[in-house]
Amino acid sequence: MKRVEILVEESLYEFYRKVGAQAGGLPAERVMADALLKLAGELSLQALEKKRRP
């Protein structure tokens, strides 16, 4: 597995920290990783759908 490091604004980190706290105490980093993974999946499905259309 590769390690990726990103810089985010303090306000954005605080947003994900609060979301994680409301989701049972998940760390902000886990919430951000899950959000990015979900976005990647959605974009992949959109790309596949575009390929299937004539």
Percentage of residues in helical conformation: over 70%
Q: Give the helix/strand class.
A: mainly alpha
Beta-strand proportion: under 5%
Per DSSP, the total helix count is 2
How are helices and strands ordered from N to C?
Answer: HH
Q: Low-confidence parts lasting 5 or more residues at pLDDT below 50?
A: none
* Average pLDDT over all residues: 95
- How far do the termini sit from each other? 37 Å
State Rg.
15 Å
Mind describing the biggest β-sheet? none
Total E-strand runs: 0
Which of globular, elongated, flat, extended, rod-shaped describes the shape?
A: elongated
Helices and strands, with pairings:
Layout: H1 10-22, H2 28-52
Primary descriptors:
54 residues; mainly alpha; 2 helices
Can you describe what's shown?
The protein has 54 residues and is mainly α. It has a domain at 28-54. The chain contains 2 helices and no strands. The longest helix is centred in the last third of the chain and has 25 residues, at 28-52. It is elongated and about 45 Å long. The relative contact order is 0.10.
